[in-house]
Amino acid sequence: MRAGEAATCWLCDRALGPRVEWHHPVPKSRGGRDTVPVHPICHATLHRHFSNTELAVFGDDVAALRRQEKVARFLRWIDRKPPEFHAPTRKRRNSI
Predict the structure, then answer these.
(1) Where are the domains of the chain?
(2) What is the pLDDT of residue 88?
(3) For the purposes of burial, counting CB atoms within 10 Å of the CB of 83, is it exposed (0-12), middle (13-18) or buried (19 or more)?
(4) pTM score, two decimals?
(5) Long-range CB pairs of 25-32, under 8 A, 24+ apart, other chains included
(6) Is 92 exposed, middle or buried (0-12, 13-18, 19+ CB in 10 A)?
(7) Is 21 helix (H, G, I), strand (E, B) or coil?
(8) What is the pLDDT of residues 36-78, one digit of tens each?
(9) Out of 2, 13, 35, 75, which residue is the most buried by the measure of CB atoms under 10 Å away?
């Protein structure tokens, strides 16, 4: 983040707390270099619901990610939580 830039989470757009993680909208494994600041719980949610291949398709189109039902449901739930809120995130289920 640059000086004077608002410190908000790329995914949920809430203020960032003391713990910040850096997410590659296009995963490094898919050639991504840019990073964006996110809450740890937002970061875990993205990687729980999407593979690196899927994340690469969305790229930096955060609006498209927010429209995905699983993310939209998470965003409604997290909306009124404080910036430092964190809860365990279940691991991604393997598809059979």
Answers:
(1) 21-78
(2) 73
(3) middle
(4) 0.83
(5) 25/55, 25/58, 25/59, 25/60, 25/62, 26/55, 26/56, 26/59, 26/60, 27/52, 27/55, 27/56, 30/55, 30/56, 32/56
(6) exposed
(7) strand
(8) 999 999 999 999 999 999 999 999 999 999 999 999 999 999 9
(9) 75
